[in-house]
Amino acid sequence: MMVQHASRIIPMTVRWTGGTPSIEEGTSHATIADTAAGVATITFVDAFSRKPVILLGTESATGEKVTAHLRSVSQTGFILESINEAGANADSTVDTHILVVGFDSADEA
Fold it and tell me: Is residue 94 within 8 Å of 81, Cβ to Cβ?
């Protein structure tokens, strides 16, 4: 018989202002490092037992069409990339809304 373990959900907002990312919501759950223009590495304060599921959405203060991409998702964090409609890394004012869902038990199905 499978035992249902509780999931852990982390809501976050990363704000890019002038190319510099900061965590606006969810600061107690993760840290952020500015790795390159439009690229940030996010590290969870408490790692998950396995790779979580991450959902993204973007909101631009200037009306610029921006998409967010994930790279290198792992139990400990991920790389977030913000791309503008020209295909370049975005460095304007953009909010990336993030929802992370994972488990603290490796045997959860």
Answer: no
